[in-house]
Amino acid sequence: IVSTSETAVVSVGGLPAGVQFTYAASDTNPSGTLSFLAGASAGPGTYKPVVTVLSAGQTVSLAFTLIVNAP
């Protein structure tokens, strides 16, 4: 997505229980930073969440591999 001035709306589907995400962006940095945090209750394993981004009238989705290791 090309957007120089519009903050993106980010959602993540398919995260396992115990894993949270945060997206930090601003009008001066619309690219932002997407972070994931696995809490103690997150089950170890390999997952395939999907990130969806909406910005400037454009939508894109991307699946990725998330590996949660045992503590």
Could you please describe the fold and organization of this structure?
By secondary structure, the chain is mostly beta strands. The protein has no helices and 7 strands. Strands 1-5-6 form a 3-stranded antiparallel beta sheet, with no helix packed on it. A hairpin with a 2-residue loop joins strand 5 and strand 6. The chain starts with 8 loop residues before the first strand and ends with a strand.
In short:
This protein is mainly beta. The protein contains no helices and seven strands.
Q: What is the alpha-carbon Rg in Å?
A: 14 Å
Percent in strands:
over 45%
Largest sheet: 3 strands, antiparallel
Main sheet: strand order = 1-5-6
Secondary structure layout:
Blueprint: E1 9-13, E2 19-26, E3 29-38, E4 45-47, E5 50-55, E6 58-63, E7 66-68
Antiparallel strand pairs: 1-5, 2-3, 4-7, 5-6
Keywords:
mainly beta; two-stranded antiparallel sheet; single chain; three-stranded antiparallel β-sheet; 7 strands
